[in-house]
Amino acid sequence: MPTCLPTVLRRCHACASERFRANGKFRVNANHKLLDAWLLVLCTACGDTAKLAVLERMNVRSVRPGLLDRMHDNDPGLAAELLQDPVVRRRNRIALDWDDAWRLDTGGSDHLDREVIDVSVRFAARIPVRPGRLIAEGFGLSRAEVGRLIAEGKLVSAVRLSGRLSGDFTFTLKR
């Protein structure tokens, strides 16, 4: 589950840094009946503010009132939703870095001594994470040990355990 907003990867115009942090602040500007809205992000090196376009030249009546209220209230939940939206990321040419922005909740350690363990992994948010890293952290193993278990067939899943996943999956670990 997420612990904070991810780092936004984009080049800073002031200092050429490539990391911004979102603090959940929005700027909304109305020009007659047209509305613009941006998510504000701050450069981690120099503190310069950049704007990520959320709405551009939208008719005020076509914007849901609830969305507009959340922007006026600087809702951090809305900021998280918008950062994960592929349309917003593509429009602003940004990528996200989720390192140190999530935690793993295992539900206790009473399962570690069993011979066969069936595990269901559920994501609270669509965070792209390597399944090997999740398994290693959840069971207190090294990532090399997880790779060895996969190669030996003692760690099996219906999904590919290499690469990144951001959706729910299950796996079985045989000791």
UniProtKB/TrEMBL annotation:
This is DUF1062 domain-containing protein. InterPro entries: DUF1062 (IPR009412). The lineage of its organism: Bacteria, Bacillati, Actinomycetota, Actinomycetes, Kitasatosporales. It comes from the Bacteria. It comes from Streptomyces coeruleorubidus.
